Amino acid sequence: MRTPTILATNDDGIDSPLFVALVRALRPIGRVIVAAPDGERSWIGKAISRQKPLLRAVPHDSTFGCPAWSIDGTPADCVNLALGHLVGGRVDLVVSGINMGSNAGLPLILASGTVGGALEGALAGTHAVASSIRLGKADFARLKLPDATLPADVAGVVDAIAARTATLCAEIARRPRPRRPIVHNLNFPPNTTAETPLVRTTAAHLRVGPLWVPAGEPGTYAFAFSVGDEAPSPHLTDRACIDAGQATHAILDFGRLAVTTGAARADALGTADAPRPRIQ
Fold first, then answer.
1. Is the dihedral of CA 228, 229, 234, 239 positive or negative?
2. Which of 32, 115, 200, 217 can bridge 66 by disulfide, Cβ–Cβ 3.0-4.6 Å?
């Protein structure tokens, strides 16, 4: 069986200790190439840096143990550039993460640079996986510091998440190429172990609240994260799953965005009693 080629990226920057742990876990399962931003590019979705005059890819002298480039662009830039110019051959899977903070619920999914990097691969025809961890406020603040290292109590959790992500990547990478752009979106609770259940879910429909608050000067506003409330769902959602201490696997099928028949069309027309599709 052919060894799969895996392209790894993230949105927290190439030196993120969570990203380093993921690449380390991926190397035994295939040929790994790293193409990641040279600094944090969070909350940027699938943005492409069209207005930049040049995009610079610099070989990264690191302990990855595989070819690696640091790129002054977005996660989607990194994936697009790598697929077109850096890899040299077919890529079977793009994996993005491990993100500092969960990407569960539609507003976070669509804003996520982690998901955006995976989606760029999916749109190019590869399998795609995004992986994230919900962190406590203190751990999140510690890991966002320059030159942060993983505290001992977090390192074991991150290694478990990296291993769980790599196991799913090994399975997915050997499947036939997907016919539609699909992202496997994984979110892990802060107490993940090797035994934490990985549960198939759907993305929560969050009603996002205001993300900006008035600052000191009139007419200025500062970013202030807020989740909002969640619309009821007949299915288990990614957010409910993490709240219950379980890991979540939501399949984001971007090929169904233009569906105009059946339950999707009925929902769009406001038919309250329309049947909803089940998770497959």
1. positive
2. 32
The pTM of the full predicted model, rounded to 2 decimals, is 0.90
Write down the CATH number for the domain with range 5-206+224-268.
Answer: 3.40.1210.10
Q: Is 139 left (phi over 0), alpha (psi -120 to 50) or beta?
A: alpha
What are the CA-CA distances from residue 106 to residues 47, 112, 190, 245, 277 (Å)?
17, 10, 20, 20, 17
Alpha-carbon Rg for the chain, nearest whole angstrom, is 19
DSSP string covering 62-100, please?
A: SSSSS-EEEESS-HHHHHHHIIIIIS-S---EEEEEEEE
Q: What is the DSSP letter of 175?
A: S
Q: How many CB atoms lie within 10 A of CB 59?
A: 10
DSSP letter, residue 274: P
Token duo for residue 178 = 């997907």
For the segment 139-187, what is each residue's pLDDT rounded down to a tens digit?
A: 888 888 888 888 888 999 999 999 999 999 999 999 999 999 999 999 9
Do 247 and 187 contact (CB within 8 A), yes or no? yes
Record the tokens describing residue 148, joined without a space: 């942060």
Q: Are 129 and 168 contacting, i.e. CB atoms less than 8 angstroms apart? A: yes
The structure tokens listed for 142 are: 């510690």
